[in-house]
């Protein structure tokens, strides 16, 4: 299986008005690309956390580990 061309990044941010937004998912080629897209939508925000979202595959195929992690939640 080929690696995906884009990944899904989950951001936790604080807006310029002080509100915290959790689990803001943005696709990007890399973290810098996803951050650029985020800053276009949320200008002057503070990024509190950024992680690669699990199970983000282009074809939608899930591994055994992905299925187990969904069931165990």
Question: What features would you describe in this structure?
Answer:
This protein has 73 residues and is α+β, with helices and mostly antiparallel strands. It has one domain. It is 26% helix and 33% strand. The chain has 2 helices and 3 strands, in the order E-E-H-E-H. It has helices spanning 31-41, 64-71, and strands at 7-14, 20-28, 46-52. A 3-stranded antiparallel beta sheet has the order 2-1-3. The longest helix is centred in the middle third of the chain and has 11 residues, at 31-41. It is flat.
Structural descriptors:
3 strands, 73 residues, 3-stranded antiparallel beta sheet, 2 helices, flat
H/E topology pattern: EEHEH
Helix content: 25-40%
- Computed over alpha carbons, the radius of gyration is 14 Å
Shape: flat
Proportion of strand residues: 25-35%
Q: Please provide the count of β strands.
A: 3
Structural class: alpha+beta
Number of helices: 2
What do the pLDDT scores average to? 84
Oligomeric composition of the shown chains: single chain
Widest sheet: strand ordering: 2-1-3
| Stretches with pLDDT under 50, minimum 5 residues | none
| First-residue to last-residue Cα separation | 27 Å
Task: Give a quick rundown of the structure.
This protein has 73 residues and is α+β, with helices and mostly antiparallel strands. The protein has two helices and three strands, in the order ββαβα.
Fold blueprint:
Elements: E1 7-14, E2 20-28, H1 31-41, E3 46-52, H2 64-71
Antiparallel strand pairs: 1-2, 1-3
């Amino acid at each position: 299986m080929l690696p995906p061309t884009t990944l899904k990044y989950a951001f936790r941010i604080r807006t310029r008005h002080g509100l915290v937004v959790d689990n803001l998912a943005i696709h990007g080629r890399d973290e810098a690309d996803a951050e650029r897209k985020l800053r276009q939508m949320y200008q002057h925000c503070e990024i509190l956390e950024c992680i690669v979202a699990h199970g983000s595959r282009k074809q939608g195929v899930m591994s055994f580990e992905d299925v187990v992690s969904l069931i165990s939640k």
